[in-house]
What does this fold into?
Amino acid sequence: MTSRMNLGNFDVVVVGSGSAGACAAIASARLGASTLIIDRLPFIGGTSTGVLDTFYGFYTPGERSKKIVGGIPDDVVNTLKKLGPVLERPNTYGAGTGITYNPEHLKVAWERLLINSGVKILLHSLLQEVNVKDGRIDSITVATRAGLAKISGKSFIDATGDADLSYFAGFSFEKAGELSPAQTMTTTFRMVNVDTAKRKSFSKEELHSEMEKAASDGYRLPRREGSDHITTVPNTMATVMTRVDSIKIKDDNEIESVLDNPFFLSESEIYGREQALEYARFLIDRVPGYEKSTIYGLSTFLGIRESRRVYGDYRVTRDDVLNAQQFDDQIALCGAPIEDHHSGTGTNWAYIPESGAVGIPLRALQVKDSTNTLVVGRCFSATHDAHASIRSMAQCMAMGTAAGTVASLATKSSGDIRNVEFSVIKSTLVSSGSILEIPE
Ligand SMILES: Cc1cc2nc3c(=O)[nH]c(=O)nc-3n(C[C@H](O)[C@H](O)[C@H](O)COP(=O)(O)OP(=O)(O)OC[C@H]3O[C@@H](n4cnc5c(N)ncnc54)[C@H](O)[C@@H]3O)c2cc1C
It folds into this structure.
């Protein structure tokens, strides 16, 4: 450890810069804490910039759509609008209105927001080791291009999506597939030179039945109800179609996830790209509007929906979601349906009653085994079903905002994340635009 480079000591260290981590770091720095954000990738945004182009979760679905996420996530959308067009478009499965952006613009928007808030950014740095004493993380080690480096902090936020910080710290988590089926993974891709007007004439149902027919004609299409949508770039469509299993059941009935076996992850990336080419062939051959199109722009990496979920002081459940449960310590809201991309050909959907929203309690962000660690985004504390609802990017951003706020306020008490009065957290969040109660 002594021979390692020392990259500094910060009030708040955020590991992972996806939509959850980036908002956590912005919130923390805006409240005055010295804040570092770390990512293994060369850009900010994780899944939001490397895989996707549409924020869901800002609005409840249904006839009386309500805006239930605000504050820093609004700043993200406003920064995007200054860089180019941003589209609001309905989701055909009933997930509500989505906000479609140019992911290349989002990379720069995240950087501008972080830098303007005073966050120190560390890219190309893969977390490898966590030093914990009595449930308190003291320091972490990251692998950089210059060698291993140590970073110390008062409090830490696990925003790695896959709970890498908690995994290396030895904190408890549920592995996807252990108690419920694991969500599958997707390599997204874009098609250019599409006649989008002609494509519009072909319904979702026709697309799906054409997929079934093509599969029986020999096209290798494991998922038969994937979707495509318009983007901010003319004549360009984005897809969410491919399906790659994220776990294997081994001979001894042990579950092996892509995170357990580096070769399994490598094979999955390769298989995702092969599948994308096959779906592109199907679109060109069988779907009106795609005749003259070409695949251009595979996702930078395979999109992982679910891998590890950390155990927090509370786990949000399926009943909480479907009953639109409200909590005394809620820091955000979610109106999205449970959207379960299980293995096989279909996808399961279950909806929160009309325009309702479940509360996300602060306790689901407080890592049970730690005094100074919060968890946000797609590895937060929830069961498989609840996670399948509360994983949209607007909710990740809202959770991030809350965790960054708590961590920043906690620096006054050596980083103990349970030592901040909830009334102070609530008033700080509300005054910065976060929405904690369902609007009338
Ligand atoms: C295929 C797919 C389609 C989806 N569709 C939508 C959609 O249309 N709209 C929507 O709102 N949501 C969608 N979702 C869900 C949503 O995108 C994710 O739940 C959300 O983006 C997760 O954000 P996050 O910040 O928790 O994690 P991520 O965005 O995954 O960010 C985690 C970050 O941590 C970094 N990291 C991980 N491990 C380490 C480490 N050891 N060291 C350093 N850095 C590390 C990663 O590089 C990454 O940048 C989709 C998800 C998938 C996979």
Remarks:
- The radius of gyration is 21 Å.
